Amino acid sequence: MRCEAGSSAIxxxxxxxxSIAILGAPLTIADVERIAALSQLELTADEKExxxxxxxxxxxxxxxxxxxxxxxxxATAHVHARVEMERRDEPRESMTLTDVLANAPxxxxxxxxxxxxRVIAG
Length: 122
Known about the structure:
single chain, alpha+beta, 3-stranded antiparallel sheet
């Protein structure tokens, strides 16, 4: 779906929501009803009007974003591409078997085992 902002609508005193157009026509309650039907939503009349305004605001913001000149901006694969997000994997001392078994609610230190809840029926 392509949205177009009608600058003449703003100049004629209409609100910004009225200036948003989808395929050349203003966003209507019928558009909201069609979107709601595709989403399998049942909306009240108040909800339809609220969503019409909200969707028009979203489309207006998308139009503002489309107007930004990004011709000199290189493509970005990830916003943190140069920042290492994970710590280095360095070997370090781990817990001893005695400490692990001492913290387990049902353990058998002599066998070196502890009981865990069943997660698969069987």
